[in-house]
Every structure is written in structure tokens, then in C-alpha cells.
Amino acid sequence: MTAPLTPPHQPSSSSSSSSSGDGNGDGGGGGNPWRAPEAGPVPPGKPWGDGPEAAEAKRAELRRDLRDAGIVLAGVTVLGVVLGLLWLWLAPRVPLVSDGTAVFLKNTEGEESIGADGTFVLLAAGLGVLSAAAVFLFRRRGGVALVVALALGGLLASLAGWGIGVWLGPGQDVAARAREAGEGVTFDAYLQLRAKGALLAWSLTAMVTHLGLTALFAPDDPEPEHAWPAPGADQQWPPRDA
After folding, report:
1. pLDDT at 8
2. Which of 6, 20, 63, 196 has its CA 20 to 30 A from that of 187?
3. CA distance 221 to 60
4. Which residues share a beta bridge with 188?
5. Is 65 inside a domain boundary?
């Protein structure tokens, strides 16, 4: 009888030792594809969301949001001067006439008072669209603080435009102006805003416009990058079995 031969799929001990000594192995047994990977240090990476670097980044982002929101609030509010001047220039006048004892509308069926409200709404809506587009170009990424500043700035601008139009327009003392004009002479009534809901036209239009621009043209948010924390003295990767 002869000794059994080594199966072809199980190399003998002599061939294993010879293969470990040649230069083709990687740290011993490199020819075995099912060998577990060598233990090594965990690759360094960014800490998870509760690390000090992440907290500092959040604080810096908050400061930047508040700064940009303040700029938007101030800039949009200043535009209320433009609204007031345009409203004073374009709004139709309400003609009045005095008979010496009382003041009456010259044209009782006129729609000038409604036209003043409509002019204010159209001007505020147009400026709301322009301001929203300017804010979007200023910061395309958007943000809650930016939208709140845009809406609040639109309301303040509407109030400022309303006040400027009334202040620079005809005087509000109708009786005194009737005496100055004389009996039977037509004069203009003071500018007023009857529909107070028109003060929200700027804010609503600006928010809707900004939302649409952000949905259509804003850049996509970057994918979050996750990494393992920096290894300690005894951390290995992959982790060894207990």
C-alpha cells in the first residue's frame, strides 16, 4: 500500500511554509482570499454631529443667518420710501368741493378712493416681487431667518410707504383747505388707505415669490458626510472579535 496523497484543494504544510517565505505574500498567507483583513487604525474623519467642531460650525451658521437677515430687514424697510413716493405720484385724487357750509364729493359716483387702494396694492406687490428676487440673488440658499426678515421688512416698508404718502400728500384739515380754496372751487382730498389689508400685499407677494424661486433654482443641499471618530490607543479597524 502507498501513503495517501495530499488533496489538491488543501496544500501541504511544506507548500504553505514555502509560500509564506516568498515575496508574493502580504504579511503571511497572502494567497488565501478568505483571510480576514489585517487590523489597523481607524481612518481619521470628521466627528459626528455632537462634536465641538460641529457645534462651532452651527454657531457660525447662526451668526451668518442673523447677519444676512438684518441686512435684508433694513434694505427692504428702506424701500418703503420708494413705495410712498410712487403711491403719492400715481394714486388718483379724490376731488372735493365746498358750498361755504359743508364739503362734498364733486363726483359722488367716482372710484378715486378705491383706485388709491388698488394703486397701493399693485405697487406693494410689484416691489415685493423685486425685493424677493433681490434677496434670492443675495443668498440663494435661503433660510428661515431670511424669509422672516423679508416678510417683516415688507410689512414695515408698507407702513412707511403709507405714512410717507399721507404726510407728503394734501393736508388732512379738510375744513381749513376748503376755506383756502373758496366756495365752489375743487380741491383734492388727503391721501388715505381705506383697506388696511393692503399693508400685507408686500409681505405675502415676497414670500410666495421667494418660495417659488427657492424651489426652482436653489442649489441642492450637500449629502451629509459621515466618518468614524478618531481612534483611541486601543481602537482597531475592523474591530476584533471579543
Report:
1. 52
2. 196
3. 18
4. 95
5. no
